[in-house]
Amino acid sequence: MHDTDMWNKASFLTRLVASSVRVSEAAGNAIKSVMAGGDLKIVDKSSNGEPADPQTEADRRAQFLIIKSLSERFGNIRIIGEEDVTSECDTVENTFSNEVLRLEDEMSQDLKSIKPEEVVVWVDPLDGTSEVALAVKNKNEALLEQVTVLIGIAYHGRPVAGVIHQPYHRGTGRTIWAIKGCGVHGLVPASAQKERIVVTTRSHLNQNVLDALDSLKGKGLACGVEKFGGAGFK
After folding, report:
1. Residue 214 annotated as binding site
2. How far is residue 94's CA from residue 86's CA, in Å, rounded to a whole number?
3. Cross-strand pairs, 225
4. Angle between the N-to-C axes of helices 12-37 and 57-74, in degrees from 0 to 180, rounded to the nearest 10
5. Which positions, given as ranges, span the membrane (predicted)?
6. Catalytic annotation present for 5
7. Among candidates 81, 94, 101, which has minimal Cα distance to 22?
8. What's the CA gap between 15 and 18, in Å, rounded?
9. Beta strand ranges found along 26-90 (DSSP E)
10. Which of 21, 105, 167, 210 has the highest CB neighbour count under 10 A?
11. Cα dist. 161→79, 184, 197 in Å?
12. pTM above the 0.85 mark?
């Protein structure tokens, strides 16, 4: 079956996820482009007395690309992005993932019947901004592995699909995506470990988190702690 035939026969949700996979990858390329240029144009979004909340040109440009691409493809679907301010870019991604379209027959009828006006698309264009800023400041490219582009799809307030793109994963990047009832794709499962390792925030540690970690260790429920940035990377 030709690509256009698969697209034409697919339900709305399948098309939305298929497009979101490619759009997330295009956003990842936009992030890399800003990083390669060297000028992140960092601003602090935090209010007085709050912890620093950096935003970069990569955040702004990636969100503009995502919203513009999905809006041009699907019309007036509701999209909520993390950033209030964006930066225009010329790129509009209009391709789609055939791998996603091939799952059409595995989806439940309830998901196939979802209409555009019934979904909300949630966008975090660059999850791990603190790691980006720190990677540039300290010239520590290893931190960029923790950067992700996140696109989540909710139906009547419940998550039904999502995309995580890691632009810096092993140099070339990878995209992980899932649709309810159809499994997780793009991820190689790690083998089970006997040790109980707690994974927690690297850049937003506070006393409540530290107290919780101490409690887990005290009860023998954790034997180690790993700190990473970005919800998507965790």
Report:
1. no
2. 20
3. 198
4. 150
5. none
6. no
7. 94
8. 5
9. 43-44, 54-55, 78-81
10. 167
11. 14, 10, 27
12. yes
Residue 164's identity, in one-letter code, is I
Q: Which of 14, 56, 86, 129 is catalytic?
A: 129
For residue 64, pLDDT beyond 90: yes
- What does the alpha-carbon distance between residue 92 and residue 73 come to, in Å, rounded to a whole number? 10
Domains assigned to the chain? 3-185 (3.30.540.10), 197-228 (no CATH)
Q: Report d(CA 187, CA 171) in Å as an integer.
A: 16
Cβ within 8 Å of residue 43, ≥6 positions away: 54, 55
Question: Nearest Cα to 168, choosing from 214, 233, 101?
Answer: 233
- Backbone φ and ψ for 162, nearest 5 degrees, come out as -165, 160
For residue 219, pLDDT beyond 70? yes
Query: CA 10, CA 118: separation in Å to the nearest integer?
Result: 17
Nearest to 121 by CA among 11, 234, 230, 23: 23
Check the annotation: does 124 bind a ligand.
yes
The DSSP call for residue 11 is -
According to the annotation, is 127 in a ligand binding site? yes
The response to whether 3 counts as a known ligand-binding position is no
Which residue carries 């059409």 as its tokens?
104
Separation CA 150–CA 202 (nearest Å): 19
How many CB atoms neighbour CB 54 within 10 A? 17
Q: Residue 129 catalytic? A: yes
Specify the pLDDT at position 149.
97
